[in-house]
Amino acid sequence: MKTFILLIAALLISGITFAQGAITPAAPGVTYGKTITADNAINVSQLSTALNADSVYQGRVSGKVVEVCTKKGCFMKIARENGSPVMISFTDYAYFMPQNIVGKNVVVEGKAKVNETSVAKLQHYAADAGKSKEEIARINQPKKDIEIMADGVLVVN
């Protein structure tokens, strides 16, 4: 029985370790999660304006990926003109992003809103993004910013 449990644990660990290798590389036209199109997408600068008018924006947003989770692709960030990128998570962790998506233009479809992220969660994201212990230690204030919970992602170019 003990051997069986160790075998299962080893299989789970190896599955997690090699999960990134099974993700389709980012290329124009590739979708992740729900299949979507770029129709009616607003750019990320328009998203701020939309959220000033309403507390939630449901729809498509386009932007350039500037960061992706280095552990397994469980989140990504798209650039914004003020320098603070928009965090994008994926509904129910149903899909993950490849490492080569950084620098690509994408359209995400989902629900955007302004959230406050705790220090613990910000530190967790920083660790997943491969930040140094010193950079993580400097995170000592919660952050209120736009987050998107995406149902689907389309690589545009």
TrEMBL record:
A Pfam family the protein falls into: DUF4920
Keyword terms of this UniProt record: Signal
Keyword Signal appears in the UniProt entry: yes
Signal peptide: 1-21
Protein name: Uncharacterized protein DUF4920
Phylogenetic classification of the source organism: Bacteria, Pseudomonadati, Bacteroidota, Sphingobacteriia, Sphingobacteriales
